[in-house]
Each structure stands twice: as C-alpha cells, then as structure tokens.
Amino acid sequence: MGRDPGRGPGRGGHEGGCACGDCPHGAREGHRRAVAAFLSKRDELASGQGLPAAVAHSAGASRQWVSDALTQSADLVAERGRAEGEVWLGLVWRRTVASVWGLVAVLLLVQALTAIGAGWTSARTAGLLAAVVVAVALTAASWFHRARGGVLAPVIGEDNRLSTSRVVAAGWVLFVVYAVLVLAGRLAGASSHTERDSLIEGLELARGAGIVTVLAVVCAIAVLVRRVVGLRVLGQRLQKVRADRPRAADLLTDDSGRGSFADTQYAVLGAVALVFAAVRLARRPEQLPDLPWGLAVMVLISAATYVAAKYAEGGRPVILSVVRSREAGDLDAPIRTGDDIEIRGAGFVPPGAQSADRLSRMVVRIGAVHVHVPLVPVPGGFSNPSDAVLTVPVPADVEPGRVEVQVVTAAGVETNRVEIDVTD
Predict the structure, then answer these.
(1) What is the pLDDT of residues 30-89, one digit of tens each?
(2) Which of 234, 307, 233, 236 has the alpha carbon at shortest distance from 265?
(3) N or C terminus: fewer CB in 10 A for the chain?
C-alpha cells in the first residue's frame, strides 16, 4: 500500500487518495470522511456558528462566505466520490466474475440433484458445457474491460448509471446464446439422424417465434433509447448529470433516485418472461423455448410503455417570473443593484443534481454579469437554490435599465430569458 501523496506532513495513514478498495484508509473511507466533514460544516453554518467576525456584520457578505466555504467542502466530497467510483469500477469486475461462476456452480448443483433417480442425460451435459462456455466468454470480456466494471461495462450508460434497457437486452441476448449452445452441444453428441434432424428443427422460426420477436424488440429498444436520450440532451429538452458510480438501484429508479414506474415494470416483466423461458428450456432442451404469444405481447407492451416514458420525461427549465425579494419589514421598491431577486420557475435542479457541488455550479446571467447562485444551508439541506425558486443578489456591475435574466443549470441547460428593470 503506497503513501497518499495528498497527506500532510506528520500525519499517519492514508486520507482517501489511494486505491485500496476496501481497506479502512482507502477511497471509500476518504469519501466517508469528506461527507461527514461536509455535513458537519453545513449544519454548523446553518445554525449560525463558525462565521468569521469580519463578515458577521453583513448579511450579504455572510451569505457569500458561507456559500464559498460550503462549495469548497462540496468539491472535496465530489472529488472523493469520483475516486471511490473509479476504485469501485476497478474492483467490481472480480465480483461479477465470481457471480458468473457461482451461477455455473448453482446450475451444476441443481442438475446433480434433479438427476437423482432420473439419471444423468446428454441434455444435462450440454447445458453444463454451454454454461461453462458462456462463463469463460464473460470472464474474458471482464478482463479486457476490468477498468470499466468488467461484465457491467456494456450496460453502463454515458451518465455512469446502469441502463435498464441495456440490462434487459443483455439478459435476453445471453439467454438466447446459452439456449443455442445447448442445442449445439446436443447436436454434437447426437448419434442418430433422427435425433439430429429433430434438434435442427428445434431452431426453426415457427418454434421460437415468440422469443425471437422479444429479442429483436428489446435489442432495438436499447439502441433507440440511447439515441432518444442523446438527441434530447443535445436539444436541451432533457437534463443529464453524471453519477459517481453505477448502482443496482439504477434499474428501478430515475436519475434522482426516486422509483420509476416505467423502468420498474420493464425490468420486472422482462425478468419474469426470462424465467419462464428458462423453465421451458429446461423442460424441452431439444428446441428454442417456445415463449407463448400472450407472454411475448406483455413484454412488448411493457417495452412500448418504457419507450413512451423516455420520450415524455424531462423538459427544458423555464423562468416564469422574476420579482424583488422582500424581507419582513422591508418597504416595497423597484429592483436596485445590491437587492436580492427571486427567480420563480421550474426545472432549475436537474434530477441527480441535488448534491452541493452540483448546486454550486448554477449560474444566473443578469445582463452581462454571471452570478453564481449562493448556497443557503438549513438543517438537513439547502433552502437555496431549489427546483422552483432561486434567490441571487443583483451585482453593482449591472448597468441600470432593462436587462435580461437567464438561468444556467448544473447540466449546462439554459432557460428562457426574462427582462427586468433595474433602477439606480
């Protein structure tokens, strides 16, 4: 284990910069410490403690100092989180390989138990050999993509999250490959022309029309969804922010971590149909699983719902109005330089951008001046910015007169422009 280059003199142990994985002073521990330090600082500043005396007399200066301090701490948390994500991706390939070979061992155990009384058959041998071939292929692929998560590399999206459409498609592709290998193994071991002809007929489209249709649709959807999401992001109709690392929950949730009906129903129905197909293959290993059309249509309806949800999700952030922020006891007045303005709208905080480092990247253009949205902490979170309301000061550099206001979100998406009058 190497010495952490970011460690201060005279301090022992690592501080989270190494790539030791599960060691107590590795990337995971460094991220945990950074998060704990940030939460402590946020709650301390939210209660009014820790402010320097030089800025305590001015509400504006205090707010700016608090925002800058929290931004620096949040940047450290984000840096540690990215480091942990890279280490996790570098280690997870071993776990996925172990899981793949664990499934092969489970298959062997199930076949051995079911062979008691019935005897060992050529179909069991073909199934076991097919599983070994698939496991070897996945192991080799994991080695070549070990820095990107091994087996998970093809199903991780551009936003560093697990893609539901790719996982469902990958599951069906692997199952069909396994089924064809089972038939190939049985064909190689067949001793009679009749048996060989029967196995070849098992690959006829009439026998596996349902499963072939489902395979074609889920693969097409995996490609289509990637295209749809990419075009909507480039057209600023969908906001995407990158995750620190993929998580299994990504299959059932949206980018903000909330449960998604479209993703959940697509993943669950796809998994149920896949289990049914596996049972059919076990019962009739001489042909492709004849997936009933009723079940196949259910999967197709689920897939259509998933695609429709991808077209409907998101939307461009919008400013509805801009007003002068008024505190209790303050007189009504026009907007002047130095005043706070309240920007009301929707979609200011993209899904998955609720962390402080992402919130601190929000900018408001007031005329030619770029104003970073200050972080205002409260116990357990932030009161500013929020998804529907932003509060920012009007800098002294803004020229009096009619100026435009525009918000740039953490995802880099720009809102519409709204004009306001700034007086002397």
Answers:
(1) 888 888 888 888 888 888 787 787 777 777 778 888 888 888 888 888 888 888 888 888
(2) 307
(3) C
